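pasting for ref
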Amino acid sequence: MVFSSISFLVYFLPVVLALYYLIPVRFRPARNTVLLVASLVFYACGGVRYLALMAAIIATDYICGLQCQEQYSAERRRGGVIASVVISLALLGWFKYAGFFTANLAALGIPVRVLSIALPVGLSFYTFQGLSYVIDAYRGKVPVQKNPASLALYISLFPQLVAGPIVRYSDIVNEIDHRKETVEDWSAGFTRFCFGLGKKMLLANTMGNIADAAFAVPAESLPASMAWVGILAYIMQIYLDFSAYSDMAIGLGRMFGFHFLENFNYPYISRSVTEFWRRWHISLSSWFRDYVYFPLGGSYCSRLKIIRNLTVVWLLTGFWHGANWTFIFWGVWYLAFLLGEKYLWGRRLEVLPGALQWLYTILIVIGGWVFFRSPDLHYACRYLLSMIGMGGGLQPAHSAVYYLLEYWPELICSLFACLPLKNRIQEHLEKKDTAFSRAVLAWGPKILALLLLVLSYCKLVTGSFNPFIYYQF
């Protein structure tokens, strides 16, 4: 089940909201039970057999978390966190990477059977959430959760279960049992959800159609014009698609009284690669920073060790996204430019005009997305060559013109959606502070949200199924 589906919008969500709010506020455990059961049902729709895997991870984190209580010895506490890390990463490694490793061993001539194991939806996300709880409990940053149902609710909470953002236990520990649902929060959450739904159904899916058309062609046959149209559509698709899911997750969370942190901050306006990664997938980059980079020593060590630390983080970041050499190279791609900005050309970059800083950054990001989207490294390299006019160009060049003319409204709207235009309009209206501007601020987003909901529903009933990109990770 996905948020942008009839089954979720028409059946699942209304039923869950009704059951949840029919229970009086004073019966908080009952409301939590409704959310927990709903979350398990939501996940079971993606494969009932994987509920056992989720239960195993929840049980592991619960038991290991209990070993991290302050009254226990340092050895026992350390054993608890180590056991959680080993078991969780072993399960993640088996389901996500066993096929990759066996395929590469077979390619080297080693006689092994190539495994084909289906990846459970959301495994990468809820595994990291459980690990963050146990590690923070070990560090004494959060209280140990002694109620298994509460921990299960945190790990399985359906708004952010399958594609993030990666919610830290420390961010919602007080809201599990003591949150306050308000009309203002519900309204803001519903509005945010509708904006995310519209971003997904009306823009991201259309950009995906253009990108798929370009990447379906052999890279050596692409004319430069179509190669550029395809990758520009893809960079908008992946941002709109993933940020749409985050919008919907944050909105759903607020509808039930939870406040998740932002996961995106208009990354395509960045003026350096370093800034880009402060704005893109914030929950993942901050997770690796706090649980990998800092424990290795962070930036408070020798230059050689800093390079080592960054290398580990970016190899893991690339590998986290998928069991493919393209993702590993994608991580190395960003590692190279981040190290360059840190030690070589960072200061020179800062004195350049802002437009040149942005152009430098967006070209690097575009190159990275080529590797991210391509099925293999050979295709990615050929695609890059086609972008600079070194492809065969067997496909007619006017195909790019066709997509630009056919989808120009969606392309323009997608471009605006990638920019902080909404923030600028809001700031302008707040500065004017007139009766009209206050009315627009109060009612404009709600009316627009309802319009987007209607348009998205119409698109949904007449279109085809199109899952979120990050479901595969």
